[in-house]
Amino acid sequence: MYKIYLYQFQYVPCNIPSNGTPRELFEHSFEGCQCSSESCQNSDCDILCTCHTHGLWYNSDGLLLPEALTPGSRALVQECHNACKCSTTCINRVVQHGIRVQLELVVDATKGFSVRTLEPLKRGQFVCEYAG
Question: Are strands 9-10 and 5-6 parallel, antiparallel or unpaired?
Fold first, then answer.
């Protein structure tokens, strides 16, 4: 994982509630998949499985599928998580593995802060989460 530092900024791979945020409003609980295989690609889950009701949005290379990249698409990409029974190597787990490309935080006098990559990206490749 790459850490980005500039002045008082540090990339953190988790959400941090602000002071005064009630914990029960901050934490979400999602139903997990019941997949017993290595990956949710197999249809061994029941029909109510999170992966099958919300869809699988990644290919085996960890890239978003073309339908999620269509202009105007409002696809909800929901990954498997700690309540799921599938493996941590499931193809429906990409964002939670964190940054895999080198990034640089840049300050521009007119545009402010921005992030740029220091290596080529593939279409649909995960870069990083942003909350701000």
Answer: antiparallel
- Taking CA 128 as the corner, what is the angle to CA 127 and CA 130, rounded to the nearest 5 degrees? 140
Tokens of 9: 């900024």
Q: What is the pLDDT of residue 126?
A: 92
Q: What is the pTM assigned to this prediction?
A: 0.71
| Identity at 52, one-letter amino acid code | H
Per-state percent for the chain, helix, strand, coil, to nearest 5: 10, 15, 75
By DSSP bridging, strand 112-117 and strand 103-108 are antiparallel
Return the structure tokens found at 14.
């988790």
Q: What is the Cα–Cα distance from 49 to 59, expressed in whole angstroms?
A: 19
Query: Which residue in 28, 95, 48, 90 sits closest to 68, CA to CA?
Result: 95
